[in-house]
Design a protein that fits this description.
This protein has about 450 residues and is an alpha+beta fold. The protein contains 18 helices and 14 strands. The structure holds uracil (URA). Uracil binds next to α9.
Length: about 450
């Protein structure tokens, strides 16, 4: 078999066999096929697409490129949650303690971000002392004891995805449905959970800008999961405006803590309740999403979800005083208001542009090597459909480095459109895709 022929076949729009897919993934993982040939193949896949069979084969080949995690020593059904990525997405930080407080094991391997803000692990580092590196034995023992642990990937899982993703990132081949679906699902399948809830984002701040594409991506991922015996469901959620008010690292941690205390932003809490109730159903802790929602609301109201967060922070070596008194979390030396020039109603808040503003202030990584300013970011003061008067605060910029903040106020104002009417049509959840089909909402 020759990689040249595989590139040529896909370039001409033909279907690759299972053996051909295994061949290029194996060869690339071992360093036997160079980046330039895989770049050409990725572009051919991007332009000519893969069918469902090829996508499932690609996913399995990527899973088999590394180790897989065995979670069988954790008692109960293990359910994982994954977001395709959005701005202000701090869901894991609140959702984990919420479902763990309902008795569902939340054994999560998370990553760092190469996005507008850090990933879950970066955000958690705002809490002094909190460790995310654990041996497999420690990880399992913490989950069995307190039902929650969030750690970095210890095992060498999906090495092919790491190489492919880095290459896609620099060859304009990220936003292809087969490539995204196989990348996300290979990591989920290798991480060993029994069931998977996917939060597929759609809108200006998401990979999928179009609702129909988001449904197709969701369908593809759900089919991959179910084809290998993992109960998989996708929730399609809105990423046209940032989730909640905070976009950054320590400020997102603070918002998640407030949410567990019962003071969370409406959209953020609603998404946590929707994803959480689905997790409880798949984990057989609730018989329906309605009952799951009741359980989650109860653990927020009676303080058990917040107490679970304290337990989790303590078990991972973090200082719980940072949770009890969020003033201790990293704070920016400058907090600057951005004011509105006109009055009306907020028509749109471009999530991607706001993400870029947060990145400019230092909240995210431009390259793998760059460091993150945990205190930097943006706190919105208005959301879509809110009334705004001239001179009202639209948002607060949090930063330490003045050089980074130049013109961010202008960029932020340009990302917020103000109109004269309240649309009254804001939607958070667009639908649920499961093995039986699609339920639009
Ligand atoms: N997230 C992933 O893990 N992979 C992709 O390809 C896109 C989003």
């Amino acid at each position: 078999m020759r990689i040249y022929n595989i590139i040529q076949k896909k370039r001409d729009g033909r279907e690759l066999t299972t053996d051909e897919i295994n061949f290029f993934i194996n060869g690339y993982t071992k360093g036997e096929i160079p980046d330039y040939q895989i770049s050409a193949l990725l572009m051919a896949i991007y332009l000519k697409k893969m069918n469902k069979r090829e996508t499932v084969d690609l996913t399995n080949a990527v899973v088999n490129s590394g180790e897989t995690v065995d979670l069988s020593l954790i008692e109960g059904i293990k359910v994982d949650k994954h977001s395709t990525g959005g701005v202000g997405d701090k869901v894991t930080l609140a959702l984990g303690p919420m479902v763990a407080a309902c008795g569902l094991p939340f054994a999560k391997m998370s990553g760092r971000g190469l996005g507008h803000t850090g990933g879950t692990l970066d955000k958690l580092e705002s809490i002094k002392g909190l460790r995310t590196e654990f041996s497999k034995e420690e990880f399992i023992s913490i989950v069995n004891r307190i039902k929650i642990c969030i750690c970095s990937q210890t095992a060498n899982i999906t090495p092919a995805d790491k190489k492919l993703y880095a290459l896609r990132d620099v060859t304009a081949t990220v936003d292809n449905i087969s490539l995204i679906a196989s990348s996300v699902m290979s990591k989920k399948l290798a991480s060993g959970s029994n069931a998977i809830v996917l939060d597929v984002k759609v809108g200006s701040g998401a990979f999928m800008k179009d609702l129909e594409d988001a449904f197709v991506l969701a369908r593809e991922m759900v089919d991959i999961g179910n084809s290998v015996g993992r109960d998989t469901v996708a929730i399609i959620s809105n990423m046209d405006e940032p989730l909640g008010y905070a976009i950054g690292n320590s400020i997102e941690v603070k918002e998640a803590i407030e949410s567990l205390r019962g003071n969370g932003p409406k959209d953020f809490v609603e998404l946590c309740l929707t994803l959480g109730s689905m997790l409880l159903v798949l984990g057989k802790k609730a018989q329906s999403m309605e009952l799951g929602r009741e359980m989650l609301t109860e653990v927020i109201n009676n303080g058990q979800a917040y107490n679970k967060l304290l337990e989790f922070v303590e078990a991972q070596g973090g200082d719980v005083e940072y949770i009890k008194n969020t003033e201790l979390l990293p704070k920016a030396s400058n907090i600057v208001e951005v004011l509105s020039d006109c009055e009306g109603y907020i028509k749109s808040i471009d999530a991607e542009e706001i993400g870029k503003c947060a990145l400019a202030l230092g909240a995210g990584r431009e390259t793998k090597e760059s460091s993150i300013d945990l205190a930097a970011g943006i706190i919105l003061n208005k959301k879509v459909d809110d009334k705004v008067n001239k001179g009202d605060v639209l948002a607060y910029l949090h930063y330490n480095d003045r050089n980074k903040a130049k013109n961010v106020d202008v960029q932020l104002k340009n990302a917020i459109r103000i109109g004269d009417k309240n649309s009254g049509q804001k939607k958070l959840i667009f639908g649920i895709v499961d093995a039986n089909g699609l339920k639009k909402m």
